[in-house]
From TrEMBL:
It comes from Apiospora kogelbergensis. Gene3D superfamilies: Metal-dependent hydrolases (3.20.20.140). This is Cytosine/adenosine deaminase. SUPFAM superfamilies: Metallo-dependent hydrolases. GO terms for molecular function: hydrolase activity, acting on carbon-nitrogen (but not peptide) bonds, in cyclic amidines. It comes from the Eukaryota. Signal peptide: none annotated. The lineage of its organism: Eukaryota, Fungi, Dikarya, Ascomycota, Pezizomycotina.
Amino acid sequence: MKLENVILANEPGGARWDLEVSDGVLQSKGATNAAPDAPSSLLLPPLCHPHVHLDKPYILTCNHGLSAHHPDYTDLAPRSGSFDEALSNTSKAKERYTAQDVYLRGSQFVATSYQQGVTSMRAFVEVDHVTGTLPLQAVIRLKQDFSHLVQLQICAFAQDPVFSTGHGQENRSILEKALRDYGSDIEALGSTPYVESSQEDSIRNIDWAIRTALEHHVHLDFHLDYNLDSSAAFLVEPVIRLLTEHQWTRRADKSKTIVIGHCSHLSTLPAQKMLDIADGIRQQDLAVHFVGLPTSDLFMMGRPTDEQTAPHSRPRGTLQVPSMIRDVGLAACLGVNNVGNAFTPYGTGDPLQLACWGVGLYQAGTVDDAELLFSCVSSRAREAIGLSNTGYGGGMEKGTAWRPMLLVENTKTMRVPPRPGCPEVPIPARQRVSIKDVVWDPPESSLRSVVSCAHACQTNR
């Protein structure tokens, strides 16, 4: 394919290039021959979902009516919007799953994500006594069917307890069997220690997850400390301690990471405590990455209780991702978590939209902030799930292996319907020439496309 008159966002100076790619290699790179006033396209690293639940998208906007294989979930729409309600309604939804339903909703999400510029994702799939491996088998099909477009990393996930309650042991056994039977398609193990009935069982959950991940040579991913209660048990420290005791750094493959998602409890801690946590992670040389999930966290956290008398002063809790990176030195990124279900009943799941929201959420409005927020849904997100960023940076020269990238296309003018009886007046279009100029567009927009050597350039324009 040929890309003409493109700006490489990671190269300084705003130079414009003509690129030619064949056989997966950059064959030529030279100054563009385009006219000086011709609109340039902006070539960016692709986007990444580091944390999505691929068995649960679009439950609230489901495909019921297509056939008997697609259940109706409309009675499970949020009423209070609470976390407990979301857990309960999602458990009821899982009882209605069919293989066709999970595959269709998942394929709709993966296809939408690809259109938005996503080329990699970590997909959580619940495996327990309710679903068995039905969702897992459907997502394995998705992984195969979209393998030419999206690098889909499956995380076998224990949303429900694996030690406490009457189904704990059964849940654990089913998940362990899934790791044995489908291990070649599973890249990560995830669990939710805070759903256990006691602090003791939460610690057992963490210990089991670490041991099992090491046994099966997979990444480790925790949903952790999802609260804003400064007096509640804090599980990040036991995770670090148990990783150290199990000698994760020595025993795990160097490419395997430990991801901690949500963890809104961290937003209640004083600065020194955060620095202590970061020091503990660095001292043990642990590949720990935190994933902030603002779209879910802000919907769930800080809800008023019956005893609360001043709800207008309630906190809005999510990880302070830019500060964690810059001030504390932790590895962190951003993810969308859920789309169209009781945990996040809104949004399209667009990572660029999430990065743009971060400008206001984190009061991050500088050029450097824009580049950091973009990295949080791109390179930092890829690093969190253990993927390489080689080939996406600046300095691409002839002979460089070509990787799928995100093309933001500029036009010379905008056109709107004229007033009746008046001639059309073209409006000069704003040109997007760097990351700070990239804003969110609706998914139906033609301005974004994922460019890969597997597709002719004309197909993407």
